[in-house]
Amino acid sequence: MRYEYSFYKPYNVRLEEYLQTSGIKYIKHESNIVGDSLKFSVWSTDENYEIILDELQGLKIFNPLVYVTYSASEVNSAKLLVVSPKKQVINIINNEEAYRYSCRWVSSMGVEKVNHKEQIDNFSIRKEPSTKTSTVFWAEDTGFAELFVDKRVYELVREHSLQGITFKNVMNKKGIYSENIFQMKSSNIIARDLIEMGHGERKVVCHICGKEQFFINNIYQLHLDFSKLEIQSDLYMTERMWGEGIGYPLYIISQRFYQLLKQNKLVGGITVSPVVEVNH
Predict the structure, then answer these.
(1) How far is CA 256 from CA 75, 132, 212, 268, 269, in A?
(2) What confidence score (pLDDT) does residue 32 get?
(3) pTM for this structure?
(4) So what's the pLDDT on residue 1?
(5) Which of 250, 217, 201 minimizes the C-alpha distance to 80?
(6) How far apart are the first and last CA of the chain?
(7) Please, which residues bridge with residue 3 across strands?
């Protein structure tokens, strides 16, 4: 794996001189409205990258966005992979009817909020997304909680009899069930006690019911106790235990599912993260 430390900073002469001297490629964006800026990245595979990051801090260049990428061998050898769609384009319009909410309260600003929810009905969506470049999608407004796929993924799962996967129909704007978009879920829920903590999670606690949730970042890897998990299914979901406020699950696919997606050229719209095997 390698880490990308991505910077997008207001222009200053000292920084540009440093980038030029260090041989770091950068893009200069010119703007009469917000001012010029410099965009560049430092990679963990670059020579002396730690020294470069320290020197950037000396120039008061802090807080890069950090991303992780995995090699093909790391991805292809993992038993399980956390899958994340790249696009957030599904707008659910029947949130109040499709969910059962709990732990409601009114904030100091007089805004009603909620901590937890459970799906109890099919979704209606405002618009079906284009499937020209992507086949898997997040919902826009549900805290990355719901996963949708197009007809090609749906048919792939059916054709190969993949296990542990269920589909729910989605109502389109015409008031009929879509023939192209389906919600994808799993009947296999991974409990909290199978997940090893201590790998960058930040815990938050519901101030009403005391339920724990965990905030994670872009480079987080899920650590699972494989000794208590029967790896027979092709899709798993964790409990809705991630994120502040309304929690969402992580979606985990088998290597078999991933390879079928690859073979059928259906991975363009997703990213995957190998699950780290833990045995106790």
Answers:
(1) 12, 24, 32, 17, 18
(2) 83
(3) 0.87
(4) 92
(5) 250
(6) 25
(7) 68
